[in-house]
Amino acid sequence: MFSFTDSDMFSRRCVWVNGPVIVGAGPSGLAVAAGLKDQGVPFVILERADCIASLWQKRTYDRLKLHLPKKFCQLPGFPFPEHYPEYPSKRQFVEYLESYAANFDIAPHFNESVVSAKYDEPCRLWRVKTTSSGGAAAAEEVEYICQMLVVATGENAERVVPEIDGLKDFAGEVIHACDYKSGENYRGKKVLVVGCGNSGMEVSLDLCNHDAKPSMVVRSSVHVLPREIFGKSTFELAMFMLKWLPLWLVDKMMLIFAWMILGNIEKYGLKRPTVGPLELKNRHGKTPVLDIGTLERIRSKEIQVVPGIKKFSCGSVELTNGENLEIDSVVLATGYRSNVPYWLQESEFFSKNGMPKAEFPNAWKGKAGLYAVGFTRRGLAGASADSVKISQDIAKVWKDDLKQKKQKVPTHRRCISTF
């Protein structure tokens, strides 16, 4: 018997889902959905944008390619086409994901934003409230009721925009890297790129290739590794060595190889962390930069490396070393974060920063039918591994419930049992 006490449930459409609700139709959500399709488990997948993989389609720059070889980035049960290059382009990866969704007949509910999700303890069910976010029609509110919830919104759902003294007074254009597409509109302009991760490095390189004059802010230490070592993927080589050697030794060897190929990067203003690249990734989730040509432009001084920012003014920026730079535009390559705390009302499994409290490989399953995918800080390979575990676990629970005939279906006349 249902005992909902929230009176506003009678003001929205209420839908019973005979299976899990998956929030997010990026690679992680699609991978779980495909696994469930394969097991014959029904589900609903909700996506706030009007397309799958909206981060890739709408919030990445044109020159983006996968940083790792394609075999480490493919989703379960569906390899990349053989004719794809070793490092597929953004467009090729989006086409791959679209083919993946079509192959497994995955049909997300687009333009449907989750505004809240909470577990109803008396009923032992999840209540997921959404509102339509696109189209000319009036926004519709829907409440999905389900036994299992898969959080697949990932680590990079929302941009991070830091507060910098005087930035609001800057007269030029200020954009986040998620809105940057190409350096074509920046020809001849002085552009300050704030951030030296993979995005900051690639945006700076792209600006250079379009005859802009970029300065890249390097406020903290950073590991820069070659994308390939002796013709092999750096990532693949590291994973191979980890099968036989301890992490600390692999880190030392990777830094030796990097020094042999890239030379001493510290003389260009790129100070390395004291912790090795793999240990830093495991401990803090900070990904090393894989160089695809940026260092060469830094050496030639086509890209200027500058220290931290003290404050902005109308047409310039004062740096922490006292230098003033005249600039025309600013690109904030300052990263992304999880948006889970904004909508999921849960504090036992997820921490305040929107990441699971448990560490990989134990961060995929919580209590009361709660799952998380795409939060491993191990890219697409980590998401794929967790998606297999999640789909298999859900299928087992779902099939056991069918066998035991204990599946509970709401009987209120406003609940629609169609999923």
Automatic annotation (TrEMBL):
Gene3D superfamilies in the record: FAD/NAD(P)-binding domain
Domain of life: Eukaryota
Pfam (any one): FMO-like
Catalytic activity field: indole-3-pyruvate + NADPH + O2 + H(+) = (indol-3-yl)acetate + CO2 + NADP(+) + H2O
Cofactor entry: FAD
Sorted UniProt keywords: Auxin biosynthesis, FAD, Flavoprotein, Monooxygenase, NADP, Oxidoreductase
GO molecular function: flavin adenine dinucleotide binding; indole-3-pyruvate monooxygenase activity; monooxygenase activity; N,N-dimethylaniline monooxygenase activity; NADP binding
GO BP term, example: auxin biosynthetic process
UniProt enzyme class: oxidoreductase
EC number: 1.-.-.-
Pathway: Plant hormone metabolism; auxin biosynthesis
Record family assignment: Belongs to the FMO family.
Name by which UniProt lists this protein: Flavin-containing monooxygenase
Originating species: Erythranthe guttata (Yellow monkey flower)
